[in-house]
Amino acid sequence: MQCLSQILHNYKKVAVAYSGGLDSTTLLTLGQKVLEKNVVALMGVAPIFSVQEQVEGERFCLEHGIEIVKVFFEPMQIPEFVANGENRCYYCKKALFSLLQEKAKDLGAILVDGTNLDDDGDFRPGRKAAEELGVASPFYAAGMGKDDIRKLARDLQLSLWDKPSMACLASRILKGTEIKADVLQRIDKAEEAIRNLGYKQIRCRVMGNAKFIIENESGEFSTENKEKIRDILIANFLSVKQTEYAKYTTGAMNLR
Predict the structure, then answer these.
(1) Other CB atoms within 10 Å distance of the CB of residue 40
(2) The pTM is what?
(3) What is the pLDDT of residues 116-131, one digit of tens each?
(4) Which of 18, 111, 115, 157 has the fewest C-beta atoms lying within 10 Å of its C-beta?
């Protein structure tokens, strides 16, 4: 924590690219501890983000007296994002972080994100975009991985220290399949309903031709819940021809 605290102290004022997830919330909390009022949360608002996670993130900032600024973002206007090719994430992050960077400069702050050492182990073109824009990554600079962040979150007494990761909703859609705003909204609603069946981690993968892959932390689903999940999928997507179940693994869609 001492190394990370010194890094943040050297920035004098930071604007955290804030999603409401574990990494950015932990960074925001320590930032407030080190810099007091010289920390602000910049929350991108777009259909690619879970509504529930954003609501929880906004509530966290209000409860802890942290300034939050919403930056509205329209990825559906980016052709390369909509086309959903290999570098979809690069174009999306480049556009989003450009907006956040501009807002951070207006606030006289350094834009920072929650990138950490574990991000080296996956295909993340969005990270390249952040690096090109000069976004600082304090966790990475401090040599911290995901387990270190969870430990820090526990030390800071954050109740979300064991919160599962929540990637952007576009990551649920098979590469090469055009992304549509209404499909992102359907995925968000379906995942929230499935999580309410008692799961911590849920992914609703949309594979095309009315095929879905539902993943949770263990890969195990009861027969009763499988029936409920099918009803949830039908309610949100209308046509469901095939449903498979699997264990959640980071970057799974990169292998499909």
Answers:
(1) 23
(2) 0.91
(3) 998 876 667 778 888 8
(4) 157
